[in-house]
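README: folding subset

This subset contains proteins for which both the sequence and a predicted structure token string are available. Records are stored as plain text. Below is the entry for Peptidase C13 family-domain-containing protein (417 residues), shown exactly as it appears on disk.
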Amino acid sequence: MRLIHLPSALLALLSLPLLTPATHTSNWAVLVSTSRFWFNYRHLANVLSLYRTVKRLGIPDNQIILMLPDDMACNPRNSFPGSVFNDKSRGLDLYDDKSGALGGDDNLDMGGIEVDYRGNEVTVENFIRLLTDRWPASHPHSKRLMTGPQSNILIYMTGHGGNEFLKFQDSEEISSFDLADAFEQMYEKKRYHEMLFMIDTCQANTMYSAFYSPGIIATGSSAKDQSSYSHHADQDVGVAVIDRWTYFYLEFLESRLNSTSSDVRLGELFDYQTFDRVHSDAGVRYDLIAGGEHAARDKRVLDFFGNVQGVEIEPGLRAAPEDWKKDLEALQKILESTQEKLDVLSGVDDAAASLHAKGAEATAATASNGQAVSRTALDMAHQGDKWLKKVAGAASLLVLSGVWLASSAWTKRAASA
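--- output ---
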């Protein structure tokens, strides 16, 4: 009978320390343009450019919330109907990108956009409801931010603003205090793990001055009393096609993040926004993140801009490191007990086989029932280690029963003779 050995690879695996669970298991993006009218073409191009980038880096459409108050692609002033561009070269159609991913993979069609909130749906109320998930039961899940305590969220906003406010479609405003309170509700409801808040507008840095909830990194395009500038215009389109701050963010992301495994850090991304590039004082707030500036700058860019596929471990199922030792000890006892049973079974197997060989003719007529049971047990015993591992206990009982029945029959026959 062969000894059952636990594979050494499995023992090595079980002896490893408990793996640390992923800090977050999903990435979401909320991309918001707050401006309508043709002369704000660049704000829609800002959002669609970032939409294309996070989609290229792996965040799926069902984890991107896109809010567009106007449809520049179908505006009668558009010289290129159905298209939106962020560069005067017009090499990339943001509205229907079929150029493939960065790196020349023409087989990857990123074409089309999925707009979740359009036109008059883009309001301050709907934006705050989206963040806090205060919707009626009938609101479709596809238009909700279905995040949890292990979700990282990227929030990008662009439009016209001022000191501690951002205009929505020239009809209403959201203040930095409205945003701060909405983020606090999200924190209390455990709707995020960490958040990266980005805003491109005049006096953008004042929009995150009121934040007080943990786990937020905030960055803006301009300081108080500073404007946020466009990068360049397209003479054929007739208006500016992208803002400077967003343009250089995209330049960095498109040139440095060539794959979903890039190990670029947030500090490098923030440092790229120099005054010479954006013509204003871009700002970053680190104090709300655990570990402060050093920890925030050391986080991977893909922790917010890319997809993540982690395994979420329920807190109640997590084992302490010392539990592995107990499990290994218990496993060893099981192995020793199993080996003892198999040794006994091997001896019984040999005895039964010998008895069967010597008394087969004598028990043919009078011990047919017992012989059938014995043969059944012996056949099961000879099927190999697979059956022995699974039914060792049952086989032992059957063999012993067969031997007892055969012995009883032989005794009765001898007595009658």
